[in-house]
Design a protein that fits this description.
The chain has about 130 residues and is α+β, with helices and mostly antiparallel strands. The protein has one domain: Roll (Pnp Oxidase, Chain A). A hairpin with a 5-residue loop joins β1 and β2. The relative contact order is 0.26.
Length: about 130
């Protein structure tokens, strides 16, 4: 299992299509799934807008296993990214990059006035597998 985001995955992450974000039990069974935008940070990190499954907790034993299913909208090739939560940022370059991306998406559907990014959760990519 690779731990680096390839150029193809980076391009898929920079598109407007959302990814499935899944909380996965220790047995590998999805227990919670949502759609979300994923923002490329670097070849080993991604960011998600603040989600409901991350609790404000310093006990990392309680943080669930998170998997993002990323689909290339042109080739329909897809990858599962196994993620490890690192922290949440409420300002700075990653936050601003995600805010701009989401504002563009919301403006396409005429909902830009309803949008306000509260934070960007930073994740380390600990595994990449092609589906």
């Amino acid at each position: 299992m690779n731990k680096v985001l390839s150029k193809q995955i980076k391009l898929a992450l920079e598109d407007v299509f959302p990814s499935y974000i899944m909380v996965v039990s220790k047995d590998g069974i999805p227990t919670n799934t949502s759609l979300s935008q994923v923002c490329y940070v670097d070849e080993r990190h991604i960011a998600l807008p603040v989600q409901t499954f991350m609790k404000a907790s310093t006990n990392f034993q309680e943080i669930p296993n998170i998997v993002a299913e990323v689909v290339d909208p042109i080739t329909l090739r897809n990858w599962n990214l196994k993620l490890k939560y690192l922290n949440t940022v409420e300002q700075g370059p990653i936050f601003e990059k995600m805010a701009v991306k989401l504002a563009k998406i919301f403006s396409i559907v005429g909902m830009e006035d309803l949008f306000r990014l509260q934070g960007a959760e930073i994740y380390e990519v600990v595994g990449v597998s092609e589906q």
